[in-house]
């Protein structure tokens, strides 16, 4: 008898029929003698609907109250699923994050799980029940409800699997696994039967929303056996693997992208050691995450400094940068809210500089200008004009042969030939 944590996302519980289908699947697993903890998201569209209502009342509503509001979406689905399970004769009990005692810090809207009390989960499991837990939420040390950031139910599931030392954590969603890129952008994308933890971490951090990045971080830290599966069709899905062999990997395993980016440039700042900290200090004090950073020294005692932020933070970041610009006597501030980041990811590329050349050549041949570039051992990211995003993703997908099985991929993706 095994213990499984099974998470079902918004589309998978989006209607009462879908909830019945999830109940059927869970009841089947239970009837095979396994223990099951189910984690569910809110019905699809519900979290956006709740956010929209608060926005109408006050765009700057207190974040604590926002978390009380948006956590309710998941409270609806846990109750409905528990009702559907009990009706089937499969004993089940619903629990909010607070009731389980999923402890988090107080960073409302993007709280981090610090630890999980497993006593109540374990006693409900021991009494033979399926426990249905609300994803995306916890409680802080002041007894306030917190939420874990968009897509956070993935993290709830993996964290519970780690805390309970579950045999496997299954993330059921509306695609049947992790693909070489988002199949909604490139229909020729191919499902990967396995992906290394490092690649999945990069893909998630670079915009592939199939798994929330923090869920992948948890999985890696506690080596949680993690599989992404479809809640609509049967299949083996995609297994996240740990400690794989780098030499045999394809150069590029996947392409991720993020449309939700904006860039800011401050021109003509004094070229001296503390200036970067002066520019980024107010941004970080405002809790705005910065992604890429590039400084160009111009040789005349000045420098230009560019960085990217989440598009939701663009206006705030620009206002702060204008203030810094006048303090520093900078020439001006420029911004671009219509950019996108495209990244190629693969553990096999770590020792192959030719991969970057291929990427830049492909984009150049399509007439796509690269505004910023950043690299790590296993990824290359470029910022481009948002209107070229789909073209860039499809061209790179074809150039690296990702629409073909690894054994049939063209020279472009063969480690021996680049
Ligand atoms: P859920 O509501 O189940 O959590 P999400 O919408 O958060 O589902 O994540 C699933 C979606 O992730 C897919 O519908 C797909 O459009 C998108 N996606 C982005 N990149 C990938 C990828 N590389 N592989 C699979 N899906 C991806
Ligand atoms: N309901 C939350 C969201 O829409 C959490 C989740 O679905 O994982 O982001
Ligand atoms: Mg999700």
From TrEMBL:
Catalytic reaction list: L-aspartate + ATP = 4-phospho-L-aspartate + ADP
A GO MF label: aspartate kinase activity
GO biological process terms, semicolon-separated: homoserine biosynthetic process; lysine biosynthetic process via diaminopimelate; threonine biosynthetic process
Pfam families in alphabetical order: AA_kinase (PF00696), ACT (PF01842), ACT_9 (PF22468)
InterPro entries in the cross-refs: AceGlu_kinase-like_sf, ACT-like_dom_sf, ACT_Aspartokinase, ACT_dom, AKii-LysC-BS, Asp/Glu/Uridylate_kinase, Asp_kin_monofn, Asp_kinase
EC numbers on record: 2.7.2.4
Record key words, sorted: Amino-acid biosynthesis, ATP-binding, Kinase, Lysine biosynthesis, Nucleotide-binding, Transferase
Record pathway: Amino-acid biosynthesis; L-threonine biosynthesis; L-threonine from L-aspartate: step 1/5; Amino-acid biosynthesis; L-methionine biosynthesis via de novo pathway; L-homoserine from L-aspartate: step 1/3; Amino-acid biosynthesis; L-lysine biosynthesis via DAP pathway; (S)-tetrahydrodipicolinate from L-aspartate: step 1/4
Enzyme superclass (EC): transferase
Name by which UniProt lists this protein: Aspartokinase
PANTHER family: ASPARTATE KINASE, ASPARTOKINASE
Residues bound to ATP: 7-10, 173-174, 179, 184, 209-210
Organism: Aeromonas molluscorum 848
Family: Belongs to the aspartokinase family.
Any one annotated GO CC term: cytosol
């Amino acid at each position: 008898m095994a213990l499984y944590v099974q998470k079902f996302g918004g589309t998978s519980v989006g209607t009462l029929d879908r909830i019945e289908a999830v109940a059927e699947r869970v009841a089947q697993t239970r009837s095979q003698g396994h223990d099951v903890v189910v984690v569910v998201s809110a019905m699809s569209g519900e979290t956006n609907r709740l956010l929209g209502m608060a926005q109408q009342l006050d765009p700057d509503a207190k974040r604590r109250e926002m978390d009380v509001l948006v956590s309710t979406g998941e409270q609806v689905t846990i109750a409905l699923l528990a009702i559907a399970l009990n009706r089937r004769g499969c004993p089940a009990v619903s629990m909010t994050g607070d009731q389980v005692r999923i402890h988090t810090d107080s960073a409302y809207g993007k709280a981090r799980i610090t630890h999980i009390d497993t006593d109540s989960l374990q006693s409900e499991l021991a009494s033979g029940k399926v426990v249905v837990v609300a994803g995306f939420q916890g409680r802080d040390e002041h007894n306030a409800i917190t939420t874990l950031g968009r897509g956070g139910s993935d993290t709830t599931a993996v964290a519970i699997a780690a805390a309970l030392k579950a045999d496997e954590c299954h993330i059921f969603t509306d695609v049947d696994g992790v693909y070489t890129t988002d199949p909604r952008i490139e229909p020729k994308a191919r499902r990967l039967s396995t992906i290394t933890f490092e690649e999945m971490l990069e893909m998630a951090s670079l915009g592939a929303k199939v798994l929330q990045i923090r869920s992948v971080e948890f999985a890696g830290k506690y080596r949680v056996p993690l599989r992404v599966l479809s809640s609509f069709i049967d299949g083996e899905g995609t297994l996240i693997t740990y400690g794989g062999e780098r030499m045999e990997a394809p150069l590029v395993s996947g392409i991720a992208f993020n449309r939700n980016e904006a860039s800011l440039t401050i021109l003509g700042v004094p070229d001296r050691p503390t200036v970067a900290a002066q520019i980024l200090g107010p941004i970080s004090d405002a809790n705005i995450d910065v992604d890429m950073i590039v400084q160009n020294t111009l040789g005349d005692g000045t420098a230009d400094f560019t960085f990217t932020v989440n598009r939701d933070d663009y206006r705030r970041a620009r206002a702060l940068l204008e203030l810094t610009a006048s303090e520093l006597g900078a020439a001006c501030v420029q911004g671009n809210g219509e950019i996108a980041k495209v990244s190629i990811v693969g553990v096999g590329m770590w020792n192959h500089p030719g991969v970057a050349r291929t990427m830049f050549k492909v984009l150049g041949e399509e007439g796509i200008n690269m505004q910023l570039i950043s690299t790590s051992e296993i990824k290359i990211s470029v910022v481009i004009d948002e209107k070229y995003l789909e073209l860039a993703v499809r061209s790179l997908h074809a150039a690296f042969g990702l629409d073909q099985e690894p054994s049939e991929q063209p020279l472009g993706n063969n480690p021996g030939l680049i």
